[in-house]
């Protein structure tokens, strides 16, 4: 069964900028008009270049960027205390700091480009129902505070207050992090694409890329179903579809299905929340609808390593998983009992073995770059990684890309 459209696609603005024809030559060719490709085009265009963005869909944000929960959760894929154990303190802090720089950039760019209405403030509450997880979250609160980052462990009464509505007695407490953002995913990404186009980027949508091959003497031949273009540099920002162009990444990138359900609007506002180490999570849309996602651990082997549809944006939609998500909601949020579920949809995430994305140069190939596999967690990097990669593409240092994200680690 095909996925229905997401809330964001159903309520977002149409793409009115329109598509460019495929030129014969270009400077930088960006493959993919999700949040990563569109924002990279913005930073390249702001620096005075005219990047060409290609996407197989008729408009930007029709892949995962328009099907997510819109949450810009600061920090990497692992809680900070665990990230310190995994990567060492300096690298873990570099990853966390990148997402704080991202927060500031999102706010700065939204204000500059007239996208304020697409962004809304929120907080984050990671809830624990087991002693193990509570201990992990308490350690993370301490580790964050030691690094000067606002975070607190809240016991159940304080967590209830921060949540703004009741929580069941099974919750032991939660890690609270203030000053977070969420976006209307489609309005925000299409807004970034519009801003990129205003600054000189070209978007050629409805074009499927089939290969990118080096040209003798320099440059890249990009082959599409609408013809070929020669580019000085190519950036592959195709999320879980990246291995179609770069088959060496097939063993590295695992396509994972994600599903969300949306309720009718409620009268209370809640923070973005996570439970069971993020395997169940939620948030809220600007109009007050609750979003709840996850639970793929309850269907082992069905949602990880899925076959990607050849042309579609999502794997098959699972009504069974949507029902489970809808059923889980009142047991966590008693006040949501009886609130109807009005929509559910699926999307594709791209996971790597170490749960870090791939951002940087393709080793040994001059002018080939990759920015993909954000492990279900791309939005908190969605300005800073494109901005820093643009700097590298234009010959600068791009020091804000953590070393842990270097694609060379797998190649
Ligand atoms: C259900 C769900 C919930 C999520 N919730 C969150 C969240 O709350 N917060 C968060 O940070 N992240 C979340 N994510 C992950 C987030 O959506 C991704 O990390 C992010 O959108 C990745 O952006 P992207 O630009 O790399 O990928 P995409 O948006 O998927 O862009 C890739 C683009 O490549 C295009 N494409 C693919 N193949 C070709 C081809 N051959 N030729 C031309 N074009 C092609 C596609 O059309 C697509 O537009 C969620 C994901 C899902 C599925």
UniProtKB/TrEMBL annotation:
Residues 28-391 form the FAD dependent oxidoreductase domain. Keywords: Oxidoreductase. It holds the Pfam family DAO. The keyword Oxidoreductase applies. SUPFAM superfamilies: FAD-linked reductases, C-terminal domain, FAD/NAD(P)-binding domain. GO terms for molecular function: oxidoreductase activity. One of its GO terms (cellular component) is cytoplasm. The keyword Oxidoreductase applies. PANTHER family: FAD-DEPENDENT OXIDOREDUCTASE DOMAIN-CONTAINING PROTEIN 1, SARCOSINE DEHYDROGENASE-RELATED. This is FAD-binding oxidoreductase. It comes from Streptomyces triculaminicus.
